């Protein structure tokens, strides 16, 4: 028995399921070895007729033995090999009680004389067999050690393509189209939308963007603090699809709850404003002030109040909401990931209002956003030089948010999303972590701060009982870094590639990305390989965009890069159309071409790169988020392929759906961990 158990453990190691390439993998193997020892000892001391029920609870074991993960029933001593196992939680107490009963029965059944019992004991000692008291002590000791080592189910991880559904944006769109739309009609709209998206064979699930203020319209003390209607509908539709398709990979859901500017009104009203700091003369606010007004922030525009990332009431209220969210959905197997947020503005990205994404503030006499942050930091962190002209306060709050999510959620994937948008408050006084120097080719305070946060996120002890993923939301065909700018999808690939060899979910950071916008609705912005509209520094002499032009449709044709035009079309051919609105679609790149161009950026450096005109590499990626409108377009035009120019110059006829199907297939082939790959 001992030989069989030892051989199986050695076979487990030899097969390469684990290797001591890092401290975390050594710990995993030590855990498994101790668990196997518990099994071997237990079977060596319990009577042969007492079979023990065991359960394979680790996916890696299931893969190593090519056995299903469900319980395999009673295992008798007559079996030839003992598989390495861990007891389910309830089984530990069961086996402990069974062994105690076995040992306690012996004195009652032994009715022979003292001399005979003494002789038998001597024989036992000569044979090296332990008495029940010793065996009991050892078994109980091993069981006590094994209990905290009981393997938990592997955290759920996103894989494949997810359809992005921004719930609030869809509500606004429907209300604009039908101002009298009823709640019942809105509910029916979302149910139909979810069903259509989940029915697409390329879709692995839904990525739900949802505003905190909509989900938590009333204080927790109110009778109806939360409104989960549209989120519940998504989980119900996914469940219904999975039930109808039991032989296919189940559809799953990523949750992206958004605080910041989307903070509920009832909470904002309780937080004193810091706006007095920005007035002339200064009107000193209370020390408890915790919000500021910003106008024209790139995501959402308008004039809105933003809670300070460090405000205690804001943080505690966000925690209360997340706890309620976890209580409602954490046990749902369709729930695979939650995006970390809190020290944020309009999205889950590491981005706040600054001089690069927000104009000067007219309501404060033209004060720049960065100057506002300097005043806020001086007010809230007096006498602390490390927090002046520094992003340290934002780093602290991001790390605290990651810790909080690790405490609240369990068994899912935590997602950290870069944004290249933390305030650059000084040109020096920051350090980029050495491991990330390649993704900060132009070092600045923002890149140093975001990579410092990612370095913290990577740590094995961070994130609780969850898996991890890093994501980039702003992927466009023109945003191929190649040393031109910081972070981007290159930063995500660096993280996924550098942690890909680890086996512990807490150490392996998965890679994900999102199209910056719909390739159907914003074809040129998303899919041109040159930036559109061009930045002032990149504009030709003929390109002059009037200050009154605030939307793309009024941009002069002279500002449309050649890479945005269909094959054979030149800028001279567009002269008579004056502005973009008048240019026929046939003269511009198609949505299919835009889709292909962005996919080339995404897959560059992966094993699937050659299928999209890129250079192959070893980078693993797990998921991709594409907007719902693009899936609806693909379904509508499934039988209408377009000519797409490949990187080498050749042209292929392909539909948007064809590209989505290929993306899903290749993505599942390169995702992590390999033992989780489906289809």
Structure commentary:
An 8-stranded parallel beta barrel has the order 3-4-5-8-10-11-12-13, surrounded by 9 helices. A two-stranded antiparallel sheet has the order 1-2. The protein contains 20 helices and 15 strands. Strand 14 and strand 15 form a beta hairpin. Helix 4 packs antiparallel against helix 6 and helix 8 runs parallel beside helix 10. With 679 residues, it is α/β, with parallel strands linked by helices. Helices cover 38% and strands 12% of the residues. The chain has 3 domains: 148 residues, no CATH class; 365 residues, TIM Barrel; 55 residues, no CATH class.
Give keywords.
679 residues, TIM Barrel, two-stranded antiparallel ribbon, 20 helices, 15 strands
Give the helix tally. 20
Share of β-strand residues: 5-15%
Under the CATH scheme, which architecture of the largest domain would be assigned?
Alpha-Beta Barrel
The CATH topology of the largest domain is given as: TIM Barrel
Q: Tell me how many strands there are.
A: 15
Largest sheet: 8 strands, parallel, barrel
Radius of gyration: 30 Å
Residue runs with pLDDT of under 50 for 5 or more positions: 1-29, 38-112
Shape: globular
Measured distance between first and last alpha carbons: 38 Å
Strand order of the largest sheet: 3-4-5-8-10-11-12-13
């Amino acid at each position: 028995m001992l030989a069989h158990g030892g051989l199986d453990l050695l076979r487990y190691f030899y097969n390469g399921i684990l290797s001591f390439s890092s401290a975390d993998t050594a710990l995993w193997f030590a855990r498994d070895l101790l668990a196997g020892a518990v099994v071997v000892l237990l079977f060596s001391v319990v009577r042969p007729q007492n079979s023990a029920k065991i359960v394979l609870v680790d996916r890696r074991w299931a893969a190593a033995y090519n056995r299903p993960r469900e319980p395999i029933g009673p295992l008798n001593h007559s079996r030839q090999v003992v598989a390495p196992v861990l007891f389910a939680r309830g089984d530990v107490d069961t086996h402990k009680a069974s062994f105690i009963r076995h040992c306690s029965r012996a004195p009652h059944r032994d009715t022979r004389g003292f001399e005979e019992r003494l002789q038998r004991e001597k024989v036992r000692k000569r044979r090296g067999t332990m008495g029940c008291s010793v065996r009991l002590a050892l078994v109980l000791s091993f069981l006590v050690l094994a209990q905290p080592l009981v393997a938990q189910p592997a955290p759920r991880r996103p894989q494949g393509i997810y359809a992005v559904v921004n719930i609030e944006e869809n509500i606004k769109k429907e209300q604009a189209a039908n101002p009298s739309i009823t709640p019942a009609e809105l509910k029916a709209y979302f149910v139909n939308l979810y069903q259509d998206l989940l029915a697409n064979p390329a879709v692995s699930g839904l990525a739900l963007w949802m505003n905190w203020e909509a989900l938590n319209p009333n204080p927790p003390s109110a009778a109806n603090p939360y409104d989960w209607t549209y989120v519940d509908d998504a989980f119900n539709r996914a469940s219904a699809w999975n039930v109808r398709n039991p032989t296919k990979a189940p559809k799953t859901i990523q949750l992206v709850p958004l605080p910041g500017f989307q903070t509920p009104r009832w909470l904002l009203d309780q937080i004193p404003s810091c706006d007095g700091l920005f007035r002339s003369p200064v009107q000193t606010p209370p020390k408890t002030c915790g919000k500021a007004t910003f106008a024209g922030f790139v995501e959402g525009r308008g004039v809105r109040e933003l809670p300070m990332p460090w405000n205690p009431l804001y943080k505690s209220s966000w925690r209360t909401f997340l706890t309620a969210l976890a209580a409602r959905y954490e046990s749902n197997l369709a729930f695979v990931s939650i995006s970390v947020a809190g020290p944020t503005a309009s999205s889950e990205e590491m981005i706040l209002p600054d001089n690069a994404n927000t104009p000067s503030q007219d309501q404060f006499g033209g004060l720049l956003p960065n100057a506002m942050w300097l005043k806020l930091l001086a007010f809230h962190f007096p006498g602390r030089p490390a927090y002046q002209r520094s992003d340290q306060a934002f780093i602290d709050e991001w790390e605290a948010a990651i810790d909080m999510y690790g405490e609240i959620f369990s068994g899912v994937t935590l997602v950290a999303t870069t944004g290249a948008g933390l305030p650059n408050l000084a040109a020096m006084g920051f350090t980029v972590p050495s491991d990330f120097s390649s993704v900060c080719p132009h070092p600045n305070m923002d890149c140093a701060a975001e990579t410092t946060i990612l370095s913290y996120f990577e740590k094995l002890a961070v994130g609780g009982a969850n898996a991890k993923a890093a994501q980039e939301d702003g992927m466009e065909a023109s945003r191929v870094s190649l040393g031109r700018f910081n972070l981007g999808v290159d930063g995500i690939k660096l993280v996924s590639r550098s942690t890909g060899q680890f086996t512990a979910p807490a150490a392996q950071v998965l890679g994900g990305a999102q199209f910056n916008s719909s390739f159907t609705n914003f074809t040129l912005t998303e899919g041109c390989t040159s930036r559109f509209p061009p930045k002032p520094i990149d504009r030709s002499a003929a390109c002059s965009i009037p200050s009154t032009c605030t939307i793309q449709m009024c941009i002069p044709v002279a500002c449309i890069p050649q890479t945005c035009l269909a094959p054979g079309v030149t800028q001279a051919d567009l002269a008579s159309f004056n502005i973009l609105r008048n240019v026929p679609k046939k003269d511009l790149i198609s949505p299919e071409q835009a889709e292909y161009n962005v996919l080339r950026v995404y897959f560059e450096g992966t094993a699937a790169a050659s299928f999209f005109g890129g250079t192959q590499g070893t980078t693993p990626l797990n998921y991709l988020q594409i907007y719902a409108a693009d899936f609806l377009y693909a379904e509508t035009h499934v039988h209408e392929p377009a000519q797409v120019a490949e990187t080498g110059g050749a042209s292929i006829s392909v539909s948007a759906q064809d590209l989505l199907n290929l993306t899903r297939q290749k993505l599942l082939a390169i995702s992590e961990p390999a033992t989780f790959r489906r289809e």
